[in-house]
Write a structure and sequence with these properties.
Elements lengths: L2 E7 L11 E5 L6 E2 L16 E8 L6 E7 L2 H4 L8 H7 L3 E7 L9 E4 L9 E8 L4 E8 L10 E7 L9 E4 L6 E9 L2 E8 L6 E6 L7 E2 L1 H7 L7 E8 L5 E7 L8 E7 L8 E2 L11 E8 L1 H9 L6
């Protein structure tokens, strides 16, 4: 029987919210907090806060990697960024925060990986997908860029095999007049499916598909029909996992209210290709509102190790 690790942050206005949190589940539906709901890792460099986490296991050597946006609104929004999201977007960090582990409990010290040159705005919301055809990993993220005058944000990517050496960033997907952010890509039956937050017209989550990781992508129209019932401008940060019975669980981060009412809302579908995701709140349980993260399938041994480890306390 498998288990699942959810790496995320919390919606808090204090610096401890923008750190690394773990949640665990044996079935993908009922989740419990690790370390009593306190951070398991802290960011001490860069903006001294991290958001939008992703976790991946390298098939080549078995090592685990966490990447996250290098950004602390608690520390920087009122001062460094002058209460301006535009300022964050254009002048935020060109680095991603990174940790590495062999066992999911002992992690290296935080490091900053510079992937963006000076043409990039802030590097937001990294995620990773394995490219089976090329045998490497595609690390992708959202950014504004000088090449379109820091206009609508797009999705950029870099390739790596060891999470040490990265190719020069390239554009993965962008629309001419509408920003797209928070990319999450998954493979199913040889096709790749990308979920994105569309920033307007409509301001909802969209699903795209392509025969290659890097596209070209086309919309899954049936998914639009399913999302049409959701209020615009209230959901972001899609992340998904395939559970043991073969169904897909898609989680959308609801930010339509201030404070503790925010967090992931679950949807379930038999597959990605059909886009037939049904909202399924009653099937799921969270100890608190998990914010923007990703899920890694683990085993029972890893589950017990994480839950029983003596994590540092605040």
């Amino acid at each position: 029987m498998g288990a699942y690790l959810f790496v995320h942050f919390k919606e808090k206005r204090t610096p401890d919210g923008e750190q690394v949190y773990f949640g665990l589940s044996r079935d993908g539906f009922t989740w419990e907090a690790v370390n009593g709901g306190q951070p398991v890792l802290w960011a001490f460099y860069g903006d001294k806060g991290v958001r939008d986490h992703t976790i991946v296991r390298n098939q080549a050597d078995g090592k685990y990697h966490i990447f996250a946006t290098d950004l602390s609104l608690a520390y920087g929004m009122r001062g460094k960024y002058e209460n301006s999201w535009e300022n964050v977007s254009r002048n935020g960090s060109k680095f991603l925060a990174h940790w590495e582990s062999e066992d999911l409990v002992h992690w290296t010290e935080q490091e900053l990986v510079k992937l963006g040159d000076e043409g990039f705005g802030c590097l937001w919301a990294p995620d990773v997908v394995y490219d089976r055809k090329q045998g490497d990993y595609v690390l992708h993220w959202s950014s504004s860029h000088a090449d379109n005058g820091y206009g609508p944000k797009g999705i950029f990517y870099s390739r790596t095999r060891d999470f040490r050496q990265f190719t020069k960033p390239a554009l993965l997907y962008r629309e001419e007049s509408i920003g797209v952010i928070d990319s999450a890509i998954y493979e199913e039956a040889g096709m790749y499916y990308m979920f994105l937050k569309h920033e307007h017209n409509p301001a909802r989550i969209i699903e795209l598909c392509a025969p290659e990781v890097t596209g070209p992508y086309r919309k899954v129209e049936r998914f639009d029909d399913r999302m049409a019932v959701l209020e615009e401008g209230k959901y972001e940060a899609p992340t998904a996992v395939r559970i043991e019975d073969g169904r897909w669980c898609l989680f959308l981060d609801y930010y339509g209210v201030p404070g503790a009412g925010q967090g992931y809302v679950p949807f379930v579908a038999p597959n990605l290709a059909g886009g037939e995701f049904k909202r399924s709140d009653r099937l799921f349980s969270f100890p608190y509102g998990f914010k923007h993260g990703t899920i890694l399938e683990i085993g029972e041994e890893e589950y017990r190790r994480i839950m029983e480890f003596g994590w540092p306390q605040n």
